[in-house]
Known about the structure:
The structure is a homodimer. Chain A folds into three domains: 10-178, MoaB/Mog-like domain (Molybdenum Cofactor Biosythetic Enzyme, Chain A); 183-260, Alpha-Beta Plaits, CATH 3.30.70; 265-416, CinA-like (Maf protein), CATH 3.90.950. Chain A has 15 helices and 17 strands. The first copy, chain A, has helices at residues 18-21, 29-39, 54-67, 85-92, 101-112, 161-178, 196-203, 207-210, 235-253, 265-275, 290-295, 314-321, 325-331, 336-350, 397-416, and strands spanning 10-16, 43-50, 70-74, 97-99, 127-129, 133-135, 144-149, 152-157, 183-191, 214-220, 223-232, 257-260, 280-284, 305-311, 354-360, 375-382, 385-392. Chain A has a six-stranded mixed sheet with strand order 2-1-3-8-7-6, sandwiched between helices. In chain A, strands 14-13-15-16-17 form a five-stranded mixed sheet, with helices on both faces. In chain A, a hairpin with a 2-residue loop joins strand 10 (214-220) and strand 11. Chain A is elongated. The interface between A and B is large, with 95 and 91 residues.
Amino acid sequence: xFEKNSSxxxxxxxxxxNEVTSGLIQETNSRYLGDRLHSAGIGVSxxxxxxxxxxxxxxxxxxxLCRVGIVITTGGLGATHDDITKTVLVNLFETxxxxxxxxxxxxxxxxxxxxxxxxxxxxxxxxxxxxxxIFYNKKGTAPGLLFHRNDKRLYALPGIPLExxxxxxxxxxxxxxxxxxxxxxxxxxxTTGLTEASLWxxxxxxxxxxxxxxxxxxxxxxxVNIRLSTFDEDMNAIENRLDKAEASIREKIDSYVFGxxxxxxxxxxxxxxxxxxxxxxxxxxxxxxxxxxxITQVEGSSAYFLEGAVTYSNPAKENRxxxxxxxxxxxxxxxxxxxxxxxxxxxxxxxxxxxxxxxGIAGPGGGSEEKPVGLTYIxxxxxxxxxxxxxxxxxxxxxxxxxxxxxALNLVRLWLMGIPL
Amino acid sequence: xFEKNSSxxxxxxxxxxNEVTSGLIQETNSRYLGDRLHSAGIGVSxxxxxxxxxxxxxxxxxxxLCRVGIVITTGGLGATHDDITKTVLVNLFETxxxxxxxxxxxxxxxxxxxxxxxxxxxxxxxxxxxxxxIFYNKKGTAPGLLFHRNDKRLYALPGIPLExxxxxxxxxxxxxxxxxxxxxxxxxxxTTGLTEASLWxxxxxxxxxxxxxxxxxxxxxxxVNIRLSTFDEDMNAIENRLDKAEASIREKIDSYVFGxxxxxxxxxxxxxxxxxxxxxxxxxxxxxxxxxxxITQVEGSSAYFLEGAVTYSNPAKENRxxxxxxxxxxxxxxxxxxxxxxxxxxxxxxxxxxxxxxxGIAGPGGGSEEKPVGLTYIxxxxxxxxxxxxxxxxxxxxxxxxxxxxxALNLVRLWLMGIPL
Lengths: 421, 421
């Protein structure tokens, strides 16, 4: 919907650097800028990444300026030999370099605060294009540049994320946002436990929602995020439309939606434990500590997380969790019976209100015909009773661990909410 | 160096999806493909990202096919309403969709192994462009497609990284690599324990190395990766140059280099434990399970990893590890004394040869003037003795956990190699 609205202002982003096209680094500026522009109500119609090659840079910039009114480049403004963006733009906009004393004073202050002189190699940073507006950079040495051509604007920013973000947030976004009346807002519904296909089968056709909001769904092996977007000049209208769409989706798949926007599953589980003043102990085999790690990513988790036991070996399951050796012999370490005994065992050992356990075969070794790689039992135990669920995850070792941990945390969430497992 | 070699074959990558241009997700396929193509000796001259808009997609594909001989697209091959890449390409290459029974059989097998029927919504995946070569996808439901126009090739791959990587590695890369004479090879030296600045101070000037190889250094909060690159038609010449550069760097900073290329610190620690037939038990407080999680990411880690104890609460430290309550009272849970007692405790409890422990204040709460956020003690204990190191990490909770886990694993590595801590 937003994308279809032709009155929305359009921008393009150009990322410059061999380290980007050759995959040496995971570039993040384009995602940052895409997100910030989109939220400000400016559509990003294209992102282009080119190497440190003057013809490629010039071509990409010219093409972008033909298509849209706002172009933002990042990278190639440093002082080393492969930083050529400034030279390319000076030629393209038919201007020349002039010494800017204010940049020089900025550089001197920047280095003085670090107890140093301005290195000779950096004095070139004081030469700026005569026709460009200059954005002074407090976080680094390369100033940002703004070129005008008719009613089109090209912003050139340094590639270091900290510097790029500083200049974008301080100078560029405020100027853009003030000229835009239409606000765009997103809401993300986070789900787990359904594939994308079955989610939309249960939730019903998207078209019905898309009269009022744009819907994007984002699947991963841990769940599906649903993004609802809409725009308006009136913030109340935006909120109402998002609320209505959310309610309409939740009506069908509420128990699968664990949170919104920045929520994490471990955070939601933590909140629910806090709300009910309950504590948790975790016994992990195949997940190897990942569940405890995720729980303790949350600030303040020490209030409800007492202890984790990564009982990788059978003796550890017996000694730490009191699992009967006979049980492992009879049913195998990966079994419903052992999962339940582990959950009870960690609850007793830790003194927590709730015991959670996982035992499974992460792979790639250790599988058999009867018990294939990916077979996983997750159990929960508290004073009201216990429950065990069986899963078969068909991915690689690392993703099997991740899916097991996700399913285990979700089981605690459902248990706390009283939703039948 | 490689970029200046004009005889190198060029490719472009096109990433398709509103979730990418709007910054909803951090897209990683273009980095993966850029890196893999670059390593195979194919230069990536441009990466373009466009939204789910048929005109934008068609334009981007046509432009790319004008400029280079190889174009790879990812995304938009799923079965939901906004997946339009296949339709766009069918029009562009003037072909039509035909039902492919082999895709249908693939889908049926894919879902059968998960105990399910093929959802109605996915049957469209069996309709493929008549003129395209089909790459059957074992990891998902969308097949990959190869279109030919004169001597140019367009590969369309699904956007889910697991599926994209599977099809690229299995079908596309082998075919490309066999046709290329000039080989480019990289070697990455992975270091931890030094900042980028101190690393190059110790290792000496890069210029000296750059006569024979290109050097790039990539810092993160966990260490610095050094990438050495060179190209030649003769693989021996390549290997010799890389060996020489590596030796020259290692001469100065050998104990900080923990591995090469795909090595992980947890993998290197595991190899060293296996080689010495030693077992490990881990007691974690502030890292919350992350060390055990990392160790168990390695296939076969059950051979040397016996047990992890995530002793978040003080009672857990006492009951699980036998840490004296008086010790915690006198010195506090975050202290050299408690770290050493935890390492000894997990060694005794698990029966492992080596006990490793971490106790610290991850933050943001829990700090004091005497014991600030980030204060961390890491201890190791075996039959030959014990040692404890103190660190102060000055980042946020999540990075403090990551740095603590990295430092702890590195301590085990140095201990096993007999390098003084």
